[in-house]
Amino acid sequence: MTSDLSIIIPTYNEKNNIAPLIQSLRSALEDVEWEVVFVDDDSPDGTSKLLRDYALKDNRVRVIQRLGRRGLASACIEGVLSSSSPYICIMDADLQHDEGLLNQMLDSLRNEDLDLVIGSRYTDQGNADAMPYYRKRLSEAANWFSNRMFGVNITDPMSGYFMFTRHYFESVQYKLSGRGFKILLDMLISSHQPVRFKELPYVMRQRQHGESKLNFLVIWDFLIQIINRVLGKFVPYRFLSFVTVGFSGLVIHMFVLWLLHAQYHGDFTYAQSVATFIAMTSNYILNNIFTYHDARKKNKALWSGLFKFYLVCLLGAVLNVALASYLNDRNIIWIIAGISGAMAGAVWNFTISNIFVWTIYKKTNSQE
Ligand code: GDD
Ligand code: MN
Prior knowledge:
Helix content: 55-70%
Number of domains: 2
Low-confidence stretches: 363-368
Bound molecules: guanosine-5'-diphosphate-alpha-D-mannose, manganese (II) ion
């Protein structure tokens, strides 16, 4: 059986949505040759197993179970690459996306000269009221950002519901970052030619079962990626995150110093030492959550990592001060000397943390 339409659905802990979802696809797509590819990141709630039970009975249902991996965008990409239909749709598993739109989207792609059809919550008739207040504001901010930064002129570039031709996907597939949630935006900005698209309004429904996985980490990732795009590929993504965390450490440092020294009149050296210590600890925790979320340390490794991080930062500080003093002695203006020292320290801390604390190179190169 060949299918005309492959629907790719990333899942993580969506067990209770599967039955109604498959049912809704079956009734919505009666006149279409379709298949659905679920890409499940080994959900602890057993979503993969349940999906396989469906796949055994209905050969339009397929499952890719990924082990030790996470990520909405990368799941979608792998799902698309595992399919062969000329038309592909990406949608959420949580029934928030109106399956009634599928036929309209498909008709548009077939009959009009289009690469992409986007389900939009923000056209005149679309509606995102199902989202909590802060999520709506956040989504609007992300839209505004994307439109300004990338000249993407659409109402809902953060939509998670869209259909496209395989031809179009093939033209962008090598450029996709596969990070985070914003796969549509990624596809749009990866295109050489202007994308021929159309938006169709839909009313987003409430999630009935399970919960959203869009958390602060996802938002952080999005912001860092924007900075990354602006600075170009020269500055690695992880370094940006590391430096941003470093700035937060500076703020914390100054706050503690102010508190202990200026407010409580503590000895300066004592206050500065405590501030350094707290800032380093905070940097470690934040880096562990954000910068190295794919290599996150837990339990015992969390503590040994902390001590390694102290050591790395200590040496980084020595390097920083040594270089800055050297430049200062050579009559380089103090501000340049200071910045050079700080930058050298940051690069050192980052490089050695990669190798020694979070050992990311070892992780990606070995087969473990
Ligand atoms: N395989 C896999 N791995 N799937 C995931 C992961 C993951 O790490 N994280 C989330 N998903 C799946 C969910 O199970 C769901 O089917 C779909 O991706 C969307 O995730 P939600 O957690 O429901 O996201 P949301 O509803 O808060 O966000 C939606 O709106 C955003 C814009 O506001 C999504 O449609 C996003 O794509 C969209 O950007
Ligand atoms: Mn959702």
